[in-house]
Amino acid sequence: xxxxxxxxxxxxxxxxxxxxxxxxxxxxxxxxxxxxxxxxxxxxxxxxxxxxxxxxxxxxxxxxxxxxxxxxxxxxxxxxxxxxxxxxxxxxxxxxxxxxxxxxxxx
Length: 107
Known about the structure:
The protein is mostly helical. It has a domain at 3-76. It contains 4 helices and no strands. The chain has helices at residues 3-27, 39-72, 90-95, 103-106. Helix 1 runs antiparallel to helix 2 (39-72). The two termini are 26 Å apart.
């Protein structure tokens, strides 16, 4: 697979991740106290907000890694595991372009 195709895949993932981040930011707005919802519903809303904030942090981290991967495409370091220094299989790069470790080292 050519670097150009990998670059396009990474850019697609970046776009998807940026869209998710925008959605998570919208969903993680503070839970309004002036809504006339019950105590249990408010607790559910606060819990859901917590889960959404966690997903937001993970998506922001993924976006950062995707941007790093995009910068490395075409360099000698791209596709090389940072731990064992062996090539990362193309299938893994296509599924998780933000990955900097091979499957064995990621465990």
